[in-house]
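Dear V.,

Thank you for sending over the compound details. I've combined the ligand you provided, pyridoxal-5'-phosphate, with the protein sequence from our construct and run the structure prediction for the complex. I'm sharing the raw inputs here so there's no ambiguity about protonation or stereochemistry in the SMILES, which I know was a concern on your side last time.
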Amino acid sequence: MNCDQMHPRDMIRPELKDLAPYEPGRSIAEIRQELGLGTVVKMASNENPLGASPLVKKTVQRRANLIFRYPRPNSPDLTAALGKHLDLPQDRFVVGNGSDEIIDLLIRVLARPGQDNIVIFDPSFSIYRLQASLCGVSLLQIPLNADFSFPFSHLLANVDRNTALVFLTNPDNPSGYTAHAEDLVSLARNLPPTAVLVVDEAYIEFADLPERYSPLSRLDELDNVVLLRTFSKLYGLAGLRLGYGIMPAWLSDLLHRVKLPFSVNLLAEAAGLTALQDAFFVQASREAVLQGRRVLTKDLQQLGWTVYPSQANFILVKPTCPAQSLIHDLLHRGYIIRGLDSYGLSDWVRISIGTEVENRGFVQACRAIQESYA
Ligand SMILES: *Cc1c(COP(=O)(O)O)cnc(C)c1O
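Below is the predicted structure of the protein with pyridoxal-5'-phosphate bound, written out as structure tokens.
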């Protein structure tokens, strides 16, 4: 090619050429406008049905007069509070602009471009794949078992000396399947000595018994395990962007050296501190989700639909009518749910648990749609 005809576009990193952006759930404003609907209920992005804690909203308002200040780098007040909250040393915590930022940092710190690989299940949360390809790290995807459980021995047969990271989500998204803590501990112990296991626990607080599924209390014995948690789901702060990783001190030290110092803003840190203190709101959110999950599961099963047993704040459902038409018909009745084409599960939909009233209206809409197909 004649260099005179080149353009800055011709210089982009080759791994970016085919990169499709993250596909979010559709927003309420978008659907309201498109369909001219009054109220629209979003049960698509696993947000907290109760919103955010009233105490947190007060904190954010009170702190508004401080937003001309820079935050302190690496959110020391919040890492200290998290240490107290989970009874672990403060130096195990890295707070990020959502747990998405921690995923990105882990890949950039631990995986050598063009040399190392990352192993994940298929399907899994798209951010692992997107950030790996952005970083020029090769990705190996191990298909889930047909019942959505984790094929641990197949995974172990496919890791090698160049495996830098293994990511899995527990409870899993979009199935809600949840592995037991001892299986994760044994996976970590059986990985090659250079590989780190990242357990994304975005939904762990919605499990019936989180301690049965999380290796949190075993972290002292494990130097190659990272847990990811978020304020986006149980704490209802998805829009503020706040998440954290729990990891060995050698690794948190590295992440803190690489991380942009002010990625967590002043309001997000203040909100996180208050959110940890509002035990009443957390308890109410958990109960709303556990109760709603039971009711929605039972009611949709009564329509003859398959509902996968979930420990998360959403359920994976296979309706008897075509999933695409269900999504379309529900939209026209004011309910947004998540289609799963991008996960390769086009017969299934993912439904986030709503409030009691939302769940009841949703089931009524599903019943009416089901009857229109009968
Ligand atoms: C929602 C979700 C998160 C949370 O991401 P944030 O960046 O903290 O909002 C992380 N992992 C999975 C699998 C999720 O579904």
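A first observation: Residues 25-51+280-372 form a domain with the Aspartate Aminotransferase, domain 1 fold (CATH 3.90.1150.10).

Warm regards,
I. M.
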